[in-house]
Amino acid sequence: MLIIPAEKKVDWKRPPWMTFALMLASLLAFLLYQGKDPELTEGAVRSYLEAELDRLEAPLYQDYLEREISLEGNTDLQVTLDWVEYLKTEGDRVGLASIILSDQAFYRYLQDNRDLLMTSRERSLWQSQREQIQQQYISRLSAYEAGLMPSDLNFYSLITYQFLHGGWDHLIGNMLFLFLLGFTVEKALGPGRYLLAYLLCGVVAGLTHVAFNWGEAVPLVGASGSVSGLMGMYVAFFGLRKIRFFYYLGVYFNYFRAPALVILPIWVGKEIYHYWASGGDGIAYLAHAGGLLAGAALILLSGRGWFQARESFYEPEVEEQDEAFTREYARAMEALARMDFTQARQRFEALWQAHPDRPVILEHLYHLDKLRPDQPAYRQRAVALMHQYLRLQQPENLLATWQEYLDLAESDQPLPPEEHNRVLFAALRSDDLKLAEKAFARLKATGGVDMVREAGRLLAEEFSKRQMEPRANEYRMLLKGL
């Protein structure tokens, strides 16, 4: 069963660049750095078979596996033993050599016990040939150079192992989940803190794996621990809020809503169960569990600290905002239809506070205030609407609102000269000299000398451009008298 949080959607206006960068880094590491692995593996198998080391090691390897299973209780190796017996029966030397060379625990076992397991002649041949293969090929494989080795823990490998993968399926699976979860966490934290949190979760996941596999010579590679950390962070951001999850069970899939943090113990319990029931399938389930807990703890324990989600993260999605706006707008229009102007104004005011980018709301408020043009609210709303039309570059609407205000309220509540000046400029841009002169007349009656001179100069220039020199000269003479 697969459960993935699906509360947020990608905002392509602000792409998750750090998530893409992490995906690209993993892809490049796989193609460029890990691209040498097949050639190294092939070289190791070829040299191993040419030296006929399989004749010596295959019986010892089978005994080693049987001993580990019966005496050490390592039942996970039963699958490997069955596979070795099958390959021996089929005479598949290449397959058998590949398994033996990949088992570094067996190589260490031979190093520690070669005096007991081999004759002096066999030991001499083994040391000269096997160690050369180990140094020339095996130790240069990406998993051994940069993977996380529980038997040889170092700091840099706690970071580098997160960018290595065991094959295309492994890489594609991790990158898919990295994208599905990463864009949301990146939106919450921002790219810098997101990168740090991602790497920290990978470190904790790696240390968890090492703690339960101490001394093992099998390297850990993959971003799944880090990605699990993103899952933990995702649900921690929402806490006990109900969010949407996608689930997949067999061939059936659907969505459900649940308190976010309630799913965390289900995820952790699932990983622990698979760890005990897996039978040694090579998947680092406890690393996943460690990453999940690390991600959740990083957010929950930081309180209002450095890993607190940005406020914008909790804003509703665009679709949800549109649905809420449509719903409240309909209610406001219903109040208008009932001629309940008080309630309509209250609803439109609330909408305007929530959606100041919607000009239609301000237009409705303007028309409501226009019912009482003698009130100061109408003057304030007219000015606000004119400014909005100016920002939206709608000079025709601006001029129409100005003229309407002059007819209804200018005598009682005159507009400030700055508004007439703005109207003059808008009229000139609309090539409406008649309205420009009308605005100039209002400006001349109420404005300062400098403002009037500048407006008069512009009008004189416009009339002159149109070869209307008498009118241009009238304004020039007027300016001389100021």
Notes on the protein architecture:
- InterPro entries: Peptidase_S54_rhomboid_dom, Rhomboid-like_sf, Rhomboid_protease_S54.
- This protein is mainly alpha-helical.
- Helices cover 70% and strands 4% of the residues.
- A three-stranded antiparallel β-sheet has the order 1-2-3.
- A hairpin with a 2-residue loop joins strand 2 and strand 3.
- The protein is elongated.
- The mean pLDDT is 89.
Features:
single chain, 482 residues, mainly alpha, Rhomboid-like fold, Serine Threonine Protein Phosphatase 5, Tetratricopeptide repeat, 3 domains, 23 helices, elongated, Rhomboid_protease_S54, transmembrane, membrane, Rhomboid-like_sf, hydrolase
Can you summarize this structure?
The protein is mainly alpha-helical. The protein is built from 23 helices and three strands. The chain has three domains: 2-32 and 155-311, Rhomboid-like (Rhomboid-like fold); 51-140, no CATH class; 318-480, Tetratricopeptide repeat domain (Serine Threonine Protein Phosphatase 5, Tetratricopeptide repeat).
